[in-house]
Amino acid sequence: MASEVQGKSVPMEEASFEIASGRGRARDDFDDDGRVKRTGTLVTASAHIITAVIGSGVLSLAWALAQLGWIAGPTVLLIFSLITWFCSSLLADCYRSPQGKRNYRYKDAVRTHLGGVSSKLCALAQYVNLVGVTIGYTITTAISMGAVKRSNCFHRNGHDAACGESNTTNMTIFACIQIVLSQIPNFHKIWWLSIVAAIMSVAYSSIGLGLSIAKIAEGPHARTSLTGVTVGVDVSGSEKVWRTFQALGDIAFAYAYSNVLIEIQDTLRSSPPENQVMKKATTIGVLTTTTFYMLCGVLGYAAFGNTAPGNFLTGFGFYDPFWLVDIGNICIVVHLIGAFQVFAQPIFQFIETWSRNRWPDNRFVTTEHVINIPLLGDCPFSLFRMIWRSLFVIITAVVAMIFPFFNDFLGLIGAVSFWPLTVYFPVEMYIVQAKIRRFSATWTWLKILSIVCLIVSLVAACGSVQGLIHSLQDYKPFKIS
């Protein structure tokens, strides 16, 4: 297998060495697995987590709490945060095998602890979820881009003006940006993008929070209840059930990041131990996001009541100050530009690794060039990587154009991925790793946790599918909204 480095044809292993580090580096410049020394820290890992967790899910929490009410809503938010934190801590211990070997991807950790069949099932669940998230982020970004234009239109022409905007155009713009960013070779190169995205996520959450507080202060207060939307007043009995299920899926989606946890952990320095740093980063990330989620969900529900919009920054529960609404939506766009890459990079790495192993002698697949870009320095370039990653971005954009349903799509992604990726595999790997005796007290309550979460995922998926079917009945693709 050969590759071209600065115009020379050299073996692939040698090329990778030159591309990643340059010849002549000391042995201390490499980790125990022979790869260039990782430089990730608690700060960068926390930024990756916050970027992955505080995403478009926060925008639907006011709606979710409106379906569940004052008692169940905050309780479910807290329960999901505790489950996510606990299971993520278990997963962090699975980065290294009992022999100390690194697992670079989630499915590698599952293979090490549970075997090949489980690894394939994990990979299926993980990559389906990652693809779904990238589609969901494309939808959300387009809606926020359109909301900026609509906000200015409403400001000029009044709140009752017909201010339509093409999500298709916005998705095309977003896809063009992602095609460029997708040429970044790997996860290790996007730490700065995650820090920017994390700052943006905190910014727009804070703006939504501030606008909710202002709306509450204006009075009169919106109609709320202990059990959420009222049967016979706001919704029918069947709608109440379906919406409750869908709300569970939206909250599950809001906390989803286990599918990239191992990949994030693989960016960390070897010392202190990666699992210790990752557990601290998980605590910081989940605590930060839960605080924002509680504030945004509770205050958003208090502001809008049982008529809370599905997206509280783009559903125009807020019209003024229009410039602040615009800033909030711009922050969403910047954040999701970075978050798309956090979730897309594992897909890119998987396909490219599989392709190199499948066609080791194919020069189109294996050849790399080094291109000097002003201000950026030497950057690896692959024609195969450019073409396939661009196609992936285009396909996700087209699917998003066909099914641009914010709440339903988010709920379905959260429901499908929550149990297998956040709960089942971490729990099963921990049982094997810790050698927990079958039917012992610890084994029993871990199994109960897994079964309960499976039931929650199933009912949430049913609610989201019903919502999608309902949304599709009168929908026309590529229309101006």
Automatic annotation (TrEMBL):
Q: Which residues cross the membrane?
A: 42-65, 71-92, 127-148, 190-214, 284-304, 324-348, 386-406, 412-432, 444-469
State the InterPro entries in the record. AA_transpt_TM
Main subcellular localization, coarse class? Answer: membrane
Transmembrane listed as a keyword:
yes
Tell me a Gene Ontology molecular-function term this record carries.
amino acid transmembrane transporter activity
Q: Which GO terms describe its cellular component?
A: membrane; plasma membrane
Pinpoint the Amino acid transporter transmembrane domain residues.
39-469
Subcellular location as annotated: Cell membrane
Q: Does the keyword Cell inner membrane apply?
A: no
Q: Which GO terms describe its biological process?
A: amino acid transmembrane transport
UniProt entry keywords in alphabetical sequence:
Amino-acid transport, Cell membrane, Membrane, Symport, Transmembrane, Transmembrane helix, Transport
* PANTHER family the UniProt entry points to: OS05G0424000 PROTEIN-RELATED (PTHR48017)
- Please report which protein family the annotation says this sequence is part of: Belongs to the amino acid/polyamine transporter 2 family. Amino acid/auxin permease (AAAP) (TC 2.A.18.2) subfamily.
Name of this protein: (wild Malaysian banana) hypothetical protein
